[in-house]
Amino acid sequence: MSSTVIGRACFVLAALAATGAPLVGCHPEHSREGIVVLVESVPDSLDARLTLTTVGQRVAQLISPGLVTFDDEGQPVGDLAREYRMLDSRTLELTLRDRLTFHDGSPLTSEDVKATFEGMISRAVPSPRADKLEAIERVEVTAPLTVRIHLKRPYAPILSELSLGILPRSRALPPDAAKQDREPIGAGPFRFAGQLDEEHLLLLPFEGYYRGKPRITKLLIRTVRDQTTLVLELLKGRADLVVGAVSPPLFPALLADGRIRIRSRPGSAYAYLGLNLRSGPLADARVRRAICHAIDVEPLLQAKLHGVAEPATGMLPRWHWAYAKKNGCRHDAARAVQLLQEAGYAGPQAGAEPPSASLASPAPRPRLHLTLKTSTDRFRKSIALVFQEQLAAVGIDLEIRSLEAGTFFNDVRKGNFELFGLVWSQVLEPDLMRWVFSSSNIPGPENAFGGLNRMGYRNERLDEVLDRATRVEREERKQLYAEAQAMIDADLPCIPLWHERSPAVLSARLQEYEPSPHGYLQPLAGAREAAP
Amino acid sequence: MRRLAGTPLAIAGSLLLVSLFLDLVPGDPVELMLGEQAPSIDRQALRHSVGLDRPWYAQLWLFLEQLATGQLRSSLPPFQRKVLPQIWAALPNTLLLTFAAIVVAVLIAVPLGVAAASRKGSAVDHGAMAIAVAGVALPRFWLGPMLIILFAIKLDWLPVSGAESARHLVLPAITLGTALAAFLSRVTRASMLDVLREEYVTVSRAKGLSAWAVLWKHAFRNALLPIITVLGLELGALLGGAIVTEKVFAWPGMGTLLLSGIEKRDYNLVRAVVLVFTLCYVAINTLTDLVYAAVDPRVRHR
Predict the structure, then answer these.
(1) A364-395: per-residue pLDDT in tens?
(2) Could you give the CA distance from residue B126 to residue B123 in angstroms, rounded to a whole number?
(3) Residues 422-451 of A with CB under 8 A from B
(4) Which of B128, B207, B268, B270 could anchor a disulfide with B261, C-beta 3.0 to 4.6 Å?
């Protein structure tokens, strides 16, 4: 299907349409086979080692799954590996499932596992994930279906990294390592069948998949960049699945159709407001807490997120294995005003009226002026406007500046902000807390401004706890993370907002699709195509 | 000839400006690519691998070098896909869309403008010009989805988006062509009114030619010149409008390519697309001159 073969007939049609004449030969097209998945951007790479975008990762996972995947609690569980166990704090043993095969027909054995990881560690491919495997000393093949991973030092988060897609040994190392980018091979439920053009990717069910050949006959992954168009394609009935790409305010329009369903499960994406702790008013913990009390996410969850988010008390969602209950900060405008006064932002009418009265009377002069930076996304901007109103009620004048993505990231990275609003798209490995909150990860010249602690948060005790949590076993980790969460909750380097789900929008043609809490496309392997 | 001589200058100017602006826009491709969740990758090495650590003029030189040898590659690590095949895939789609839009525009504008001029001050005139004003005022990002809702969803006649068959072209062509049609119909009307005042029109009427013949054979041919001028001038604007239209209809053309290049800060891709746009613009202007000469013999003598 080349997109340039458009004959002369179209001009006639265009002309007819333009003059309002009836369109001869245009009949509705409803007969089609297979399932069409719409994605919002072209996958940057189909190689699980190289892709940097969520879309790329989702598609790559479908083609080349890893040794482990994540269960509903965010715990690593066996995927290609039947089981795994820690022999000691530095040795991990994994046993593969029987009779695994790659799409090219070759069997998947422990040699392929070894090659996949060694290709990464030796940097045979320029993978951005290579760093995270740095703790691996070597991979040892002990039997055709058993491997041992030896670590340089105790490093518990390594388990999560084993979700890396396993490749045939020929693809793991040069000279053919680069082929994986455009013509991937894996042991996943769907095999790559062709890139029809930039926007269309064709996958076919794989007979040799260990859980059985998927029932879907054909999977077309199509890129549609414009959100409105995406929704219109769904309404037209030319698309069967969109995961996470439709913004919640468009749900009512989709549901009005009657045939379209929206399914979701509590997810792990974490929406938060990052605060700049380096200097200025937000360096004062009382001001941060005041903002936290002033913000009320409940009305937003209803009106803006249409029930596809759960309120957050911190980075980890409630269902996560390492989640710990925290005090949090309930919506309490009076408390917010009190905290601001304690911090020295008395305002002209110090303590004169309860904050609820300020809604009726003309707004009092603000005590404090702050700037919130967000992306240009309309949905995120509309949420920022609600915060603006909520903060105005406690006397904080919030200025909103929405910036184009590149500019926005640049400012966030360089610490050029007071508040920023962002979403971590997936929080599964709790070690992410170390990347985000440890003082060694404050962006600076030493990490080429790549550190993720954009807030500039420093807490030495927390640094220690998070470091220690990477070296110990699960039960102890859980305790340490509970401690860490309590500290973060007390210091509030960022304001937790909510955990977003990855809602799956489904057409009537796609049946038995059980959405993944993590927004994976894997459930397609178990789904069924309704008879036309 | 003088126009052709200006071509290199136009190209050099546009490349220089684009490179300069790309340098001024904050955000760097590596950061954008890595996004939120990639912590400790060796960013410097990635940047160096594609020459992003050099000043903008050095990057521009690198671009020219690669272009001259036909080896132009994306400035995004680590893939650095070739740029030219992407452009060859996208360019025909945009040319097709633009051409279809012109056809739509002419087919709407000429009858509308001529009808309005022939019955100046009548309800037909007012009606036609009201349509023209509306056409200019409708933004494409609104008109596109509205046409989709009407023709693709409610009436179910046409596809929503994509570029798989001739039928996929209809709605984008109308979306892109409407504004031009509106503008062109006003020009047609004005030009026709000028011509209709001329003596030879009165003479041909006096000769007893039918109103139809007078209008189309004598008046319209002479009114054509300003219409062609405007068409030529507006083609550049049409290319710009194609970007929005292509996005709405997921049309795989140059506009889509440019947008993805800007989003990802793929400097080389953006430069290449702008270069092609500049070339198109120059080509259109030259072409307009030639058509001009063909239509009006007087131009040839000058």
Answers:
(1) 578 889 999 998 888 889 999 999 999 999 99
(2) 5
(3) 422-426, 435, 441, 447-448, 450-451
(4) B270
